[in-house]
Amino acid sequence: MAGINAERDIWKHLMEVMDRLKKVEAQARKEREEHQAEISRIQAQHKEEKHRAAERIKELEGKVAELEEMNQKLQEEVDRLKHKDDKDSHNSSLPPSTDQKPVKAPNEYNGRKKTGRTSGGQKGHPGKALRIKDCMEKLKAAGVEPEVEEIGDVRKPYKERLIIDISLKPSAILKRFHAQEDGKCRIPEEYNSEVVYGTNIKAMTALLYGQGVQSAERIVALIKAISGDCIEISQGTVFNWLEALCRNAKPEEAKIEGHLLDLAQVCTDATTTSVDGHQAYIRNFSDAKWAFYVPMERKNIETLAKIPFMRKFAGTLTHDHETALYHFGTDHAECNVHLIRYLTANAENTGHMWCRKLIALLCEANRYRKRIIAEGKSAIQQETLLRLEARYDELLDLAKCERKQHPAHYRWATKEETSLLNRLKKYKRNHLLFLHNFDVPFDNNMSERDLRKCKNRQKMAGGFRSTHGLEIFCTLLSVTETCKRQAINLMNAFRALVDHNPIFA
Question: Which residues, 6 or more positions from 268, have their beta carbon under 8 angstroms from its beta carbon?
Answer without folding.
Answer: 283, 284, 285, 286, 317, 318, 319, 325, 444, 447
